[in-house]
């Protein structure tokens, strides 16, 4: 018995305690939104009081355009994902509105910390009402793409729809990113509430890019900052644990002219899903970008901007 007690004592001292000490060095507190505003806002940034949040959005381009293009980012991202595309599109005559969706970016979680496509539909309705937008075009990547088509399926106020590596159909044979895998793993994913190292963020970004050399220190810092912005980790974990409604049958209801853009090396949502969207959205057009991953608007912004400009012109 004494030998057993000594063994456990030795195990505790040599393994568990050092592990606890190591993990404690990785602990990071949430960053207050006010601290991040100087880094991730610009002259076009606004904060709208809406549904218990201060919603961060940017309103750029032609203010007289009555049918603006709305830009929605993906999971664990922010409106900054569209920065380069917006710069290319500003040469035209469109009004461009990018949004930090609830649970992400500088907008952060909603008061109830509950999320669904029905909730995001209600959010977009309220947002458009506040800005007196009665008709618009909408583009979305990944989760933002799913939110975009869910809205377009039941709102005929959407004149054109752009889906970029959009979620919506069951995903098969996808490698995914390490960050998404950890966030989807029960028990272990709770650690992400306290530990979000930049090394993990970098590995996750490298998993969604085809050309890993394009992942910069600035991008890693941005994704890391918005990930640990006040309340965002808890909100993201809630989404990963509970998920969203599975409603691919609604995709057949979309009547808006639709452009589908997809990276042929998307390891998060495989290219086969792009062909499903093309098949089930009548009259849609698919553009496959060679040697591009899950976020074409970041990896090939000029190509994406040119495709969007041609489509909405």
Largest sheet, order of strands side by side? Answer: 1-2-4-3-5-6-7-8
What is the CATH level 1 assignment? Alpha Beta
What structural class is derived from the secondary structure elements? Answer: alpha/beta
Q: Quickly count the helices.
A: 12
Helix content: 40-55%
What is the third-level CATH name, the topology? Rossmann fold
Terminal-residue CA separation = 80 Å
Radius of gyration: 21 Å
Low-pLDDT runs? 11-26
Work out the count of structural domains: 1
- % residues in beta strands: 15-25%
**CATH architecture name:** 3-Layer(aba) Sandwich
Q: What is the overall pLDDT average?
A: 89
The largest sheet is: 8 strands, mixed
Shape, principal axes of CA atoms = globular
The total beta strand count reads 8
CATH H level, superfamily name? Alpha/Beta hydrolase fold, catalytic domain
């Amino acid at each position: 018995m004494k030998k057993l007690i000594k063994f456990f004592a030795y195990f505790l001292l040599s393994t568990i305690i050092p592990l606890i000490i190591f993990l404690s060095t990785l602990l990071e507190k949430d960053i207050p939104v006010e601290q991040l505003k100087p880094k991730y806002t610009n002259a076009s940034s606004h904060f709208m009081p809406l549904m218990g949040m201060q919603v961060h959005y940017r309103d750029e381009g032609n203010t007289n355009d009555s049918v603006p293009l709305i830009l929605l980012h993906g999971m664990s991202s922010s409106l900054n994902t569209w920065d380069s595309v917006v710069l290319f599109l500003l040469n035209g005559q469109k009004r461009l509105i990018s949004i930090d969706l609830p649970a992400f970016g500088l907008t952060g979680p909603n008061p109830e910390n509950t999320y669904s496509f029905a909730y995001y539909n209600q959010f977009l309705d309220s947002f458009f009402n506040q800005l007196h937008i009665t008709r618009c075009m909408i583009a979305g990547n990944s989760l933002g793409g799913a939110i975009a088509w869910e809205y377009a399926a039941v709102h005929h106020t959407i004149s054109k729809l752009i889906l970029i590596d959009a979620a919506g159909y069951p995903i098969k044979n996808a490698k995914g990113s390490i960050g998404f895998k950890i966030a989807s793993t029960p028990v272990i994913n709770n650690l992400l509430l306290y530990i979000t190292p930049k090394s993990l963020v970098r590995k996750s970004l490298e998993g969604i890019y085809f050309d890993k050399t394009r992942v910069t220190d600035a991008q890693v810092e941005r994704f890391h900052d918005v990930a640990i912005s006040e309340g965002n980790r808890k909100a993201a974990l809630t989404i990963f644990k509970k998920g969203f409604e599975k409603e691919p049958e609604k995709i057949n209801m979309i009547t808006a002219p639709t452009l589908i853009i997809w990276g042929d090396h998307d390891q998060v949502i495989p290219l086969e899903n792009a062909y499903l969207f093309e098949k089930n959205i009548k009259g849609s057009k698919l553009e496959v970008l060679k040697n591009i991953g899950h976020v074409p608007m970041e990896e090939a912004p000029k190509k994406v901007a040119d495709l969007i400009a041609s489509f909405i012109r």
